[in-house]
Write a structure and sequence with these properties.
Helix 29 crosses helix 30. The chain starts with 8 loop residues before the first helix and ends with a helix. The protein has helices at residues 9-18, 20-30, 34-44, 48-56, 62-69, 74-80, 88-95, 100-107, 114-121, 126-133, 140-147, 152-159, 166-173, 178-186, 192-201, 204-211, 218-224, 230-236, 244-251, 256-263, 270-277, 282-290, 296-303, 308-315, 322-331, 334-343, 348-357, 360-368, 378-385, 390-402. The longest helix has 13 residues, at 390-402. The chain contains 30 helices and no strands. Among the domains are: 237-332; 333-403, no CATH class. It is mainly alpha-helical.
Length: 403
């Protein structure tokens, strides 16, 4: 609609006649002048599209809204349920209307009052009461009434209400129906009091739901860390940015699965690495050895343990561990040297050291895997030149020609 047409009655009427829903959306954003609404009602009041449009506009004068209400047409009444200027007595009448769609509209209205909601609390239609339970504008008095509703999914819907009173949260979290109980624990705005109550005495399902919350209060984190269910504690370890004290506590737990999960964490603090490096369980030390966040000094300590499982895990580490690699080169087996050639990120100096110290059988793997010799030392080239394998000597010769 052009600027010159913006407040023109004829163009507005034409716009409404073509598509009253699109017109309603447009004018809710741009606010139609009240006088233009009066003129529209005066000159086009018998047209259905105009009636629907007027009923949908929040600034339609109350007198016009009342006249529209008197038509008793469900399509119009459902639109008027959101009208802020509709008298409370008429909204109350709408709450008792025989048409279910009208009562549903009233139940979800942001203009709902306690007397109107009290009527809808006793509505025989479950959908109406469910819609009412999810309305954030209902008062605590209505919330109390709905918390006693015999239908469990109505109570579950009430549990999802973003403005649920804290006392009602406590009531619903203790509901005998598991659906309601768990729905309350999933609520984004669940009070800290409720969280801590069920963090201490909740079932496995309840504690798992609490451990999955987007944000966990430090008190709840401490409570859940002492859960008797290992699944809950493992679930907590999936979270990023856990406090170091919490990780230290978990690293001292008797369950191997917990300690292994910590050993795999990204950006694992050095203090936790030191604890896990001395773990009695080799699988925990191996998990730490494979962690790309492993400190080079801790890696050297693990390598000094002379355990084949830990050595194999260290070789798989994608981090930068020059001190660890040097130790493995000096003390490792031929099999370990072969794996270092394939999997470890060796620098030119480390590769030179490996060539100088490895057995003859390892040298052939340089040819087989087409290892790049760029930057290796003269001593390493000399070792390759004197190898018993012809293919290794040819490799060294080619490198001498191109270097």
């Amino acid at each position: 609609m052009g600027k010159e047409q913006k407040y023109n009655l004829d163009h507005l009427a034409e716009f409404v006649a073509e598509d009253w829903k699109e017109a309603a959306i447009y004018w809710r954003k741009h606010i139609v002048p009240v006088q233009l609404l009066r003129d529209l009602a005066k000159n086009h009041s018998k047209e259905d599209a105009v009636r629907f449009f007027l009923a949908s506009q929040p600034n339609t004068p109350s007198r016009i809204a009342v006249n529209l209400f008197k038509t008793n047409r469900p399509e119009i009444l459902t639109l008027l349920a959101e009208h802020p200027g509709l008298p409370a007595s008429l909204l109350l009448n709408a709450a008792r209307h025989e048409n279910t769609d009208v009562r549903l509209a009233v139940a979800g209205s942001s203009c709902i009052s306690t007397p109107v909601a009290l009527v809808l609390c006793k509505d025989p239609n479950v959908e109406v009461r469910t819609k009412l339970a999810g309305n954030p504008m209902i008062s605590p008095r209505i919330q109390v009434a709905l918390s006693k509703d015999p239908v469990s999914w109505i109570r579950a819907k009430l549990a999802e209400n973003p403005k649920l009173d804290e006392e009602i949260q406590i009531v619903l979290s203790d509901d005998f129906d598991l659906i309601v109980h768990l729905a309350m624990l999933r609520a984004p705005k669940l009070s800290l009091q409720c969280q801590n109550i069920w963090g201490k005495r909740g079932s496995r399902a309840a504690q798992m739901i609490l451990s999955n919350r987007k944000k966990i209060d430090p008190t709840l984190l401490e409570t859940l860390s002492e859960s008797s269910y290992i699944e809950v504690r493992l679930n907590l370890l999936k979270r990023q940015n856990l406090p170091e004290d919490f990780l230290k506590k978990m690293a001292s737990m008797p369950e191997v699965e917990l300690r292994k999960e910590i050993a795999k964490r990204n950006k694992l603090p050095l203090s936790i690495q030191r604890i896990l490096a001395h773990d009695s369980e080799v699988s925990v030390r191996a998990a730490l050895a494979e962690n790309a966040a492993l400190d080079d000094g801790i890696g050297r300590m693990l390598a000094e343990g002379l355990n084949n499982t830990t050595w194999s895990a260290l070789v798989l580490n994608r981090g930068n561990l020059p001190v660890t690699w040097r130790y493995l080169i000096h003390h490792g087996t031929p099999e370990l040297h072969k794996r270092l050639l394939i999997q470890a990120k060796l620098s030119a100096s480390e590769l030179s050291m490996l060539i100088e110290h490895c057995s003859e059988e390892v040298l052939y793997h340089l040819v087989f895997h087409k290892t790049r010799l760029k930057g290796i030392s003269d001593a390493a080239i000399e070792r390759l030149s004197q190898a018993s394998s012809l293919s290794v000597r040819k490799m060294a010769a080619r490198w001498k020609k191109t270097s």
